[in-house]
Amino acid sequence: MAQKELRGRIASVKNVQKITRAMEMISAARLRRAEQRIQALRPYASAIRRMTRHAAEAAENIPNLPILNEHESVQRVGYLLVTSDRGLAGAFNSQIIRAGLRTAVDAERDGREAVFYGAGRRGVGTLNFRKRAVVGAYTGFTDRPAYANARDIASDLMAAYVDGDVDRVEIFYNHYISPLQQRVTQETLLPLQQASILEEGEEDDQDGVTERDEHGHRALVEYEPDPADILERLVPAYVEISIYRALLESTASEHGARMTAMRNASDNAGDLISSYTLQMNRERQADITQEIMEVVAGAESLV
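RE: above sequence
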């Protein structure tokens, strides 16, 4: 390879390295803000989920609400895949899509129908490319989701459940652990009787001690008005806050995955620059050696 071509390649790789370093710094700044939002939301989301469970246990009869009625059979399952609007984040999007499609294929083998909802352009685009009809597509906000976005998604999912378009609703998203680690998480949102209300590792009570009444229900809370009325208000909030938390977890995971991917890309670019530089120096040394040999041969011919 000629030295001129090598210098051109080195310059191109250096330009790419500048871009990846800039993207890494941007993702790091956005990640800090996303982590703060998650830390602020997690206690509230956990409290809503515990309150919903406690109210359901305290209610003698589940209120006669369509959203709380468990369907007799599960024929259609709704899958909400939470991805991002942009790429360049390693396996962040692909692992969610693979997990959702794998679960859907297993359900279809059991004779159930899969209904897809997608949050994020990457997930929606991939589902369309694979000829999977997307009933609900929600895009343009994955960098900084708002509670209104979660409310819109929850409204459509609850309406689909009440209308009988789906018999169960599940959500797939990346749970944020650290910038280097995100865990693919699957949760059941509806029906409430099968919902994943308590997170893994959560405890019902902070002190580990719970008093119960004669029926075995928790006796730490007195409900006013009736627990059934409170549950009627809590269920929509539970669905909304669960989706909102998933959106925030996914956002932080996206920034962490992109920061890591861009750091690896910058490191790889540095290795490539070193390799090209070494190759160019060898070519230059070979050219110099060749010129010296030509001068020596010319001088010997004159003697």
